Amino acid sequence: xxxxxxxxxxxxxxxxxxxxxxxxxxxxxxxxxxxxxxxxxxxxxxxxxxxxxxxxxxxxxxxxxxxxxxxxxxxxxxxxxxxxxxxxxxxxx
Length: 93
Hints:
- By secondary structure, the protein is mainly α.
- It has a single domain, classed as CDP-alcohol phosphotransferase transmembrane (TM) domain (Four Helix Bundle (Hemerythrin (Met), subunit A), Up-down Bundle), CATH 1.20.120.
- The protein is built from three helices and no strands.
- Helix 1 packs parallel to helix 3 (61-84) and helix 2 runs antiparallel to helix 3.
- The protein is elongated, with a radius of gyration of 15 Å.
- The mean pLDDT is 93.
């Protein structure tokens, strides 16, 4: 069932390509700044999806399944792109 909380979780997954595109060009400071803003907004939706689900009594199996996956996709995408760009040493990943 697509509740508001599940839509917030899905929005994080859908926004990952935007985040990757902003980080793809390694020496574009505006891209990194925009990516930071997008990442923070994604983090805010991560907080609110759980809050909304509990407040509305709409905790669902889909949300329980998708939320940690969305978190991992978001973090992994950033780590992989920053490693690719040389901003993070490959051995540290």
